[in-house]
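Listing S7. Sequence submitted for prediction.
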Amino acid sequence: LATQLSQMVLPVKEITPSAFQDQLRDTAAAIADKAAKTGVKIPEKFALDFDQYQQQPPPAPAAGPLGRQLTAMNLAVNILLDSHVDAITSLSRTKLPEEGGAPTPNPRGHPVPHPHIATPAANETELVQNNSFDIKFTSDQIAFQNVLNGFAASSKQFFITRDVVVENSNPKPVSKVAETANGAPAPTPEATPAGAATSGTDANQLQYIVGTEKLDVAMRVEMVTFNPPEKSNRK
């Protein structure tokens, strides 16, 4: 099982800091283009929370791990675009140890060392490592379900949806009484005799009172890395 799970992990490629910047620029441009085609609103100058590296290259030891993190987050954002959410409002990631971030605790609560950071146990690493990101978006119910299914079905990167907060974009209950523009109750229309045709004006006054609400969703998603069993710390 561990070997099978390790196949659902993106590799760390040996790349230079400038090559990572090229990858970031190409990824951001591709996402902006796809968002425009699918009608999904994204933040202006959206760079998947790697903004600091658009002008300044990352530390050399961080380039490869950052490239893997960027690839995984690109997969995640594309799940939202393919699900046709209405808008992605924010995206924030946890920094990697190689760029000065704190080690991410593993499920057992202990800091997880990175494969390229020496540890007291002969450079061995834990079997499971994870890194998370927080994303907020607006969508309808169907798109939200597609996002959850997309993370669960991903075969290129193992995602775990850890925390989900869902709010109705219109928390006000649906009124049982129609209101006019100034907030006063609208007059009750006269009954139409059976078989009589309604006018075009009457038809235009019909309003949908349910099913038009949107969901404001906040999610924390973990990107999990499974190291080969023979290289993990079995303690």
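Caption to Listing S7: primary sequence and predicted structure tokens for the chain studied. The mean pLDDT is 79. The radius of gyration is 24 Å.
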